[in-house]
C-alpha cells in the first residue's frame, strides 16, 4: 500500500519526495542557466561569423554605385588597383552614366543576362503612316517630352539635348563597369524581356599583333605583372585620373547645360587641330588631304564656337577614362566613318603606348569591309564602325524574267544590328545615299515584304526606313543601359554639278561667312525630327547640318587621292570629293560636341543622385 501511495503521489505535491525526484529537480535547476548561456554564446558567434563573411567576401554583383566612388574621398579609390599599364581594375568614370555591361575579349564579346540591355516590354512601335502616305503626328501618349531648348523647336537653332531629356535623369546608371561577371559564349534569350541577353559583336583577335588582350580581365598574355599589386605611384595616378574627370564635369557643367551647341560660328584658334597633320597613320587616304598634297592649312585652325558657350577642348585621356570597359559604336555611311576615324586618331594620340591601340583584325585600311573595331587595350574599350548607309537592308530579288534586281528593304533594319545592339553608346547616321539617282527616282527599287513599289517618293521611303530603325531602337535598346545619338546630315558643296557630274570645290579655302549663302534645312532632316518625336527611347540629335554648311573649304576636293589614275590625270578637276571632310578637320568638332554631351549627362546624373 505504501508503494502505491508513493506511486500516485504528485512530484510537486505537498508531501515528501523521493531521492530520485530530488535529483531530477536539482539537475534541471543546474541545467537551466547553462542552457541559456550556451544559446547566447552560440547566437553571438553565429552573428559575428555571418557579419564578417558578408563584409569581406567580394560581392558577385558588380553594379556598385560609381557615384559613391567619384564624389567621396579619393582614399576610397586607391584600394584594389591592379598593375595593368595605365589601366587597372579601377572603376570606369563612365559607369557614372551607364551601368554594368559585360566586357569580354574582343574575339567573342557576350554578356551576362543581368548586365545586358533589356527589351522594354512596354515600348510600342512607332506610329505608322496614314493611308495616303503623308507624315502623321504621333499620338500624344507615345511622345517623350521635348527638352526646353530641344532641337525640334527650330531646324536652325538646335540643342543637343535628347528628345526625352528628363527621362535620362531618373535612370539607375551608376554601376561599376570595370568589374564584370559575364561569361563567354552565352546565347541570346528572347523569352524574358526583363533580362534579355545581348550578343555583342564578334571580333576576332588581331592576327598581326603578338599581344593577346582580354577585355574582361584587362590583362595581356605578354605581360608578366598584370596581376601584381599596384604601386603607390600608380594608385595615385589613377586617383588623379578620376579627379581630373570630376573636375572636367564640374568645370563645364553650368556653361553647357543650357547651351545651344549648334547655333554658332567658326573662329580661328591656333591651338588647333587636335592632332598634328600626318601624325595619325590610321586616316584613310580619302581623308588625308595634307599627305595628298593640299597646300593650304588654315582650314585646320578653325573651331566651332556656340553663341552662348564655349565647347570644351576634347581631352582624349579623360574621354578614354569615361569609356573604360565600354563599346562606342558608329553606324552609318562613309560620313560616319569620317567621324569614327577622327575620334580614333584623337584618342590614339592620348595614350602613352600606341602599340596597345590596334584594329581587332589587324587591318590598316578602312574601306571595303562591313565593320571595323579599334581596341584600346589599357582602357579595356573599343571604338567601332559598322557600314550601314541606309540603316535598312539592301536586298536582291529575281524578277519574272529571271534577272536579279537590287532593292531596298524599308521594313528590315541592317544586318549588322545583331552585332552592335549591345553597345554602350551608338552614333547613327544616314542621308547621303538617299540623294543618289536610284533612291531619288524610287522606281521599282523600294520594297516592303514581298511588295516592290513601282514608284515611291524618296521622302516617304526615307520616313519608312527611319520608322523601321526607330522600332528597332525601341525594341533593342534600354535607355537605362545605353545612349543613342543620331548625327544629322552633313552638307556638301559641289559647285557646277554633282559628285558624278563635274561638281567642284577645289578653289575654296575659307568658310562661308554670310548666312544668306547657306542652303535651306534639308527636308529629310525634318522627317527625321518627326520620327524622333514619336519614339519613347531618348535619342540625342546631333544636328550638325548648319555648322557644316559654312565649311565649303573643308572638303578633300582634288586632294582625295595620293596618286591619280591615268584617266583622272587627264581631267583631274572632274573627280572631286566635296562631301567628305579632310582630317584633321570638321569631324573633329562633331566629336567635341559628342564629348560635351557626355559631360552634360554626367552632371545631370550626379545632381539626380544627390537629390535622391
UniProtKB/TrEMBL annotation:
Which intervals carry biased composition (Low complexity)? 217-231
Q: Name one GO molecular function term.
A: O-acetyltransferase activity
Transmembrane regions listed in the UniProt entry: 38-56
Q: Which GO terms describe its cellular component?
A: Golgi apparatus; membrane
Provide the membrane topology annotation. Answer: Single-pass membrane protein
- Give the residues annotated as coiled coil: none
Query: Where in the cell does this protein reside?
Result: Membrane
Q: Which organism is it from?
A: Arabidopsis thaliana x Arabidopsis arenosa
Keywords assigned? Membrane, Signal-anchor, Transmembrane, Transmembrane helix
Q: Which residues form the Trichome birefringence-like N-terminal domain?
A: 257-310
Q: Which residues form the Trichome birefringence-like C-terminal domain?
A: 311-596
Entry keyword annotation includes Membrane: yes
Keyword Transmembrane helix in the entry? The reply is: yes
Region listing for Disordered, in residue ranges: 103-148, 161-239
Composition skew (Polar residues), residue ranges: 103-135, 161-204
Q: What is this protein called?
A: PMR5 N-terminal domain
Q: Which family does it belong to?
A: Belongs to the PC-esterase family. TBL subfamily.
User: Superkingdom of this entry's organism?
Assistant: Eukaryota
Amino acid at each position: 500500500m505504501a508503494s502505491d501511495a508513493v506511486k500516485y503521489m504528485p512530484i510537486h505535491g505537498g508531501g515528501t519526495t523521493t531521492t530520485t525526484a530530488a535529483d531530477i529537480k536539482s539537475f534541471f535547476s543546474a541545467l537551466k542557466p547553462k542552457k541559456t548561456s550556451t544559446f547566447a554564446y552560440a547566437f553571438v558567434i553565429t552573428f559575428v561569423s555571418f557579419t564578417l563573411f558578408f563584409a569581406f567576401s567580394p560581392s558577385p554583383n558588380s553594379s556598385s554605385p560609381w557615384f559613391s566612388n567619384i564624389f567621396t574621398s579619393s582614399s576610397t579609390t586607391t584600394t584594389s588597383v591592379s598593375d595593368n599599364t595605365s589601366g587597372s581594375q579601377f572603376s570606369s568614370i563612365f559607369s557614372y552614366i551607364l551601368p554594368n555591361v559585360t566586357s569580354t575579349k574582343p574575339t567573342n564579346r557576350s554578356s551576362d543576362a543581368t548586365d545586358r540591355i533589356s527589351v522594354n516590354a512596354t515600348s510600342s512601335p512607332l506610329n505608322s503612316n496614314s493611308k495616303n502616305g503623308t507624315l502623321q503626328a504621333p499620338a500624344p501618349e507615345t511622345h517623350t517630352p521635348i527638352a526646353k531648348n530641344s532641337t525640334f523647336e527650330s531646324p536652325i537653332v538646335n540643342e543637343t539635348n535628347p528628345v526625352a531629356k528628363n527621362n535620362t535623369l531618373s535612370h539607375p546608371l551608376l554601376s561599376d563597369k570595370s568589374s564584370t561577371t559575364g561569361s563567354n559564349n552565352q546565347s541570346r534569350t528572347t523569352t524574358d524581356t526583363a533580362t534579355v541577353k545581348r550578343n555583342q559583336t564578334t571580333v576576332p583577335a588581331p592576327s598581326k599583333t603578338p599581344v593577346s588582350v582580354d577585355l574582361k580581365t584587362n590583362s595581356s598574355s605578354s605581360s608578366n605583372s598584370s596581376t601584381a599589386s599596384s604601386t603607390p605611384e600608380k594608385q595615385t595616378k589613377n586617383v588623379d585620373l578620376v579627379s581630373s574627370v570630376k573636375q572636367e564635369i564640374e568645370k563645364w557643367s553650368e556653361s553647357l547645360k543650357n547651351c545651344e551647341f549648334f547655333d554658332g560660328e567658326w573662329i580661328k584658334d591656333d591651338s588647333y587641330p587636335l592632332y598634328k597633320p600626318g601624325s595619325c597613320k590610321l586616316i584613310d587616304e580619302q581623308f588625308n588631304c595634307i599627305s595628298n598634297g593640299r597646300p593650304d592649312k588654315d582650314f585646320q585652325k578653325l573651331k566651332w564656337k556656340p553663341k552662348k558657350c564655349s565647347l570644351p577642348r576634347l581631352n582624349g585621356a579623360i574621354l578614354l577614362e569615361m569609356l573604360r570597359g565600354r563599346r562606342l559604336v558608329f553606324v552609318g555611311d562613309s560620313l560616319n566613318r569620317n567621324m569614327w576615324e577622327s575620334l580614333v586618331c584623337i584618342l590614339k594620340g592620348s595614350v602613352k603606348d600606341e602599340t596597345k591601340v590596334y584594329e581587332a583584325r589587324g587591318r590598316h585600311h578602312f574601306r571595303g569591309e562591313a565593320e571595323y573595331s579599334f581596341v584600346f587595350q589599357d582602357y579595356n574599350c573599343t571604338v567601332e564602325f559598322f557600314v550601314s548607309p541606309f540603316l535598312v537592308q539592301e536586298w536582291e530579288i529575281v524578277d519574272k524574267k529571271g534577272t536579279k534586281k537590287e532593292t531596298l528593304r524599308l521594313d528590315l533594319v541592317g544586318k549588322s544590328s545583331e552585332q552592335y545592339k549591345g553597345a554602350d553608346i551608338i552614333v547613327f547616321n544616314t542621308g547621303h545615299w538617299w540623294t543618289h539617282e536610284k533612291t531619288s527616282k524610287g522606281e521599282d527599287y523600294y520594297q516592303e515584304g514581298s511588295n516592290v513599289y513601282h514608284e515611291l517618293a524618296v521622302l516617304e521611303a526615307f520616313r519608312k526606313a527611319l520608322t523601321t530603325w526607330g522600332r528597332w531602337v525601341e525594341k533593342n535598346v534600354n535607355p537605362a543601359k545605353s545612349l543613342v545619338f543620331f548625327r544629322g546630315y552633313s552638307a556638301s558643296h559641289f559647285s557646277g554639278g554633282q559628285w558624278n557630274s563635274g561638281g567642284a570645290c577645289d578653289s575654296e579655302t575659307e568658310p562661308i561667312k554670310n548666312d544668306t549663302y547657306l542652303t535651306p534645312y534639308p527636308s529629310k532632316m525634318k522627317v527625321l525630327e518627326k520620327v524622333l518625336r514619336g519614339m519613347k527611347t531618348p535619342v540625342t540629335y546631333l544636328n550638325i547640318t548648319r555648322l557644316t554648311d559654312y565649311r565649303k573649304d573643308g572638303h578633300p576636293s582634288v586632294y582625295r587621292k595620293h596618286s591619280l589614275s591615268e584617266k583622272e590625270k587627264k581631267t583631274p578637276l572632274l573627280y572631286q570629293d566635296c562631301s567628305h571632310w579632310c582630317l584633321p578637320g570638321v569631324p573633329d568638332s562633331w566629336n567635341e560636341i559628342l564629348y560635351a554631351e557626355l559631360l552634360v549627362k554626367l552632371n545631370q546624373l550626379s545632381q539626380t543622385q544627390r537629390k535622391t
